[in-house]
Design a protein that fits this description.
The complex is a heterotrimer of chains A (about 220), B (about 240) and C (about 230). The model of chain A has no long low-confidence stretch (mean pLDDT about 90). Chain A contains nine helices and no strands. By secondary structure, chain A is an all-alpha fold. The chains are: A mainly alpha (about 220), B alpha/beta (about 240), C mainly alpha (about 230).
């Protein structure tokens, strides 16, 4: 298990800046927003939580289609299926590695970008908390979607179509927590729901993903 | 008998000892279908402890598919595979005994040769890493990134994985492709060694390996006539929903 | 298949009769609403379609489960056949709702929880059908779409609550949506039920036709595969 995690991280770091690419994409998406809506700090501050969340969501999606694709193409998936590690565990480890290399950098970068969107300083902690608790859900839901679309024609496009609707609850709760904090409300309930959603997906989606992978092997 | 077999599988520490005593692979009346096409049907054979079997047959006869079915990657349409008394339906225990090498080498190009093999050794809980690196002459290229390796070197690394997993049944699909004669001979010796130690190997190949103790299984491409003589297995042609 | 073939004409006739009776009754022999005027009659199109749109999803959930557990081929094909019908019903419900909304609420679209949920459901139907189309091997496609349907069902429930949570904050309780069940009196109710039954039978007709087509399709594919080999 540790071996797999280390290998996943090593692969992500060596494959042309896997983590950096997602981060750069996040940056671009967030920077585009002021160009679209205008530079008014008031409007930007209002839409900042949502913008950052949508940026994080898209950046997450960007690297998802490679989660199982390369393993399926070079035959690694066959061997992993025969390993003593159950497929469910394999999916969980891979999704966790995906979060470490994609989700975590986004969480760290978000406050920096929040400055450019003139988000009130006191809400940073809530924004970070909501992203930190919510992005695992994005990785784990995405892992299920990636497992379903491995080796499927136009899999990348299909992946977005299938996974993005599933992201809606996470997006709602996550962005709401940050937005409530900046609007002076109590962000705790939303934050708890985000955390609950993450735990729920961590527990559930590996089974669905493993079932899909088994179907692909056959 | 069947209950007994699954009982052995369930008691895994004890079972590991039993495997050594009753090492055998029994395939009975195995049929496989992919995409509605029958690949092979009614296949039965046995492989005893210490034996190797060479799988022969023309392209498209289903050699690769058979190996994948035996590895538990594809569920068979019907029939039974027993490995040391463990049925193929008991997938986790069954697959614990199998080392599989398909057409693809399962190598990550961004990792070095040593890292690739180390990963598999760790994942499969093996301590044969150093020995295998030597056996497959990978030591001299151990720090090279795999994408800079030649096809033969990659193949060697892929086969080294088989050796490092230390599992009783080896399933090899055209293992000698792009290997030079010297390495091929060495690899053949390794299979012999594995069998002598009580292991088993099933090898699909077109060349003559010259193994010590091996039987041969010839898979024939199914003709239309034999296909027609088979009982109808496609639910949509059976007439269930006419 | 034989049974479905025999049932099909009756089901389709029932559908036509019920729809004709219900719609004519609803459109021409019911009074106009005192607040909404004649536009209330969209209810006879909108409500049955929306009702079916949700229940088709539920039917797909059940048939997907049956496929995953019992490997019953027709079950998987029925789910496949139902998806486009569900998508069309959902879209029709959305459009009819928008037209209705434009006269009563003064807007075609509002980010109301119900509306939003239907939009998500529509996207799901599209994705589900697209996945069927993208996988070549039929059994694998059935596996994957069934898994997707199960995941989708769980998240549909989650989304429903999430959307409620989200929209409360925006509307501050002042929801625009009418509580339909309570507002409807018997005069409207009876023709509405007739149309609902009619739309249900319409769905059944379409489902039977489509499933029969799918079964024949699979048979043709199997026969062709046999010819080539």
């Amino acid at each position: 298990m540790k071996a797999l995690l280390i290998r996943e991280l090593r692969l992500a770091l060596r494959s042309g800046g896997g983590a950096g690419l997602g981060l750069a994409f996040f940056l671009i998406v967030v920077i585009l927003v002021p160009f679209g809506v205008g530079p008014d700090p008031k409007i930007l501050a209002q839409i900042a939580p949502g913008t950052l969340w949508i940026g994080a969501l898209l950046a997450c999606l960007l690297s998802l289609d490679r989660l199982f694709q390369t393993d399926s193409e070079d035959g690694t998936l066959d061997i992993l299926a025969l390993s003593p590690l159950p497929l469910e565990m394999l999916v969980a480890v891979k999704a966790f590695a995906h979060w470490l290399t994609t989700g975590l950098p986004l969480v760290i970068a978000a406050p920096v970008l929040a400055i450019t969107l003139s988000l009130p300083t006191e809400t940073y902690i809530w924004l970070i908390a909501s992203l930190a608790l919510g992005t695992p859900a994005l990785s784990f839901i995405g892992a299920a979607g990636a497992a379903i679309t491995v080796g499927v024609r136009r899999g990348g496009l299909l992946l977005s179509l299938l996974v993005l609707p599933l992201y809606i609850p996470t997006l709602i709760f996550g962005a709401k927590a940050a937005a409530l904090a900046s609007g002076g409300g109590d962000p705790m309930p939303a934050l708890m729901l985000v955390a609950g959603l993450s735990l729920f997906t961590v527990a559930l989606t590996p089974f669905a993903a493993a079932a899909a992978l088994r179907s692909h092997l056959g | 008998m069947r209950v007994n077999a699954s009982f052995i599988c369930a008691l895994s520490p004890l079972a590991k000892i039993r495997y050594c005593i009753f090492m055998s692979l029994t395939v009975s009346n195995l049929s496989c279908q992919r995409g509605g096409q029958t690949i092979f049907a009614g296949l039965s054979f046995e492989l005893a402890k210490g034996q190797a079997m060479v799988l022969r047959g023309p392209n498209g006869a289903g050699k690769s598919t058979l190996l994948r079915v035996l590895a538990g990657l594809i569920p068979p349409l019907s029939g039974r595979i027993d490995l040391n008394g463990c049925g193929h339906k008991n997938r986790d225990d069954f697959q614990e005994m199998i080392a599989f090498a398909g057409h693809l080498d399962a190598i990550k190009p961004q990792l070095t040769v040593a890292e690739n093999l180390r990963f598999w050794a760790d994942l499969f809980g093996s301590n044969a890493f150093d020995q295998t690196m030597q056996d497959f002459r990978l030591v001299e290229i151990s720090d090279r990134l795999s994408h800079t390796c030649s096809a033969g070197q990659k193949r060697r690394l892929g086969l080294a994985r088989i050796a490092v997993t230390s599992r009783p049944l080896w399933l090899l699909d055209e293992p000698t492709v792009s290997l030079d004669t010297e390495i091929t001979a060495q690899f053949t010796a390794l299979i012999d060694q594995h069998c002598a130690a009580g292991g088993m190997a099933l090898i699909a190949t077109h060349i003559d390996l010259g193994l010590n103790s091996s039987t041969e299984l010839y898979l024939e491409a199914l003709t239309r006539k034999t296909l027609q003589s088979l009982p109808e297995s496609d639910p949509f042609l059976k007439g269930d929903w006419t | 298949m034989r049974l479905s073939g025999r049932v099909l004409p009756y089901v389709s006739v029932i559908a036509v009769v019920l729809l004709a009776v219900g719609l004519i009754w609803g459109f021409f022999f019911t009074p106009d609403d005192f607040r909404q005027g004649a536009s209330v009659k969209i209810i006879y199109v909108h409500v049955p379609l929306a009702f079916l749109a949700i229940n088709i999803y539920f039917m797909m959930f059940v048939t997907s489960l049956i496929w995953l557990i019992r490997r019953h081929h027709v079950s998987a094909l029925a789910a496949k056949a139902a998806a486009p019908i569900g998508a069309v019903f959902t879209l029709a419900a959305l459009i009819s709702g928008a037209l209705w909304g434009s006269t009563t609420w003064g807007t075609y679209w509002q980010w109301d929880p119900t509306l939003t949920s239907f939009l998500i459901m529509f996207i799901f139907y599209i994705g589900y059908s697209a996945l069927w189309g993208a996988v070549d091997e039929p059994d694998k496609a059935a596996d994957l779409t069934s898994i997707l349907c199960l995941i989708g069902s769980v998240f549909a429930v989650l989304s429903r609550y999430a959307v409620n949570f989200w929209s409360q904050g925006i509307h501050q309780g002042a929801s625009l949506s009418l509580d339909k069940e309570e507002n409807v009196s018997d005069v409207f109710w009876l023709p509405l039920v007739t149309v609902m039954a009619g739309v249900f039978f319409l769905f059944l007709t379409l489902l039977l036709i489509r499933t029969r087509t799918e079964i024949r399709n699979r048979r043709i594919t199997a026969l062709q595969a046999r010819e080539i080999s």
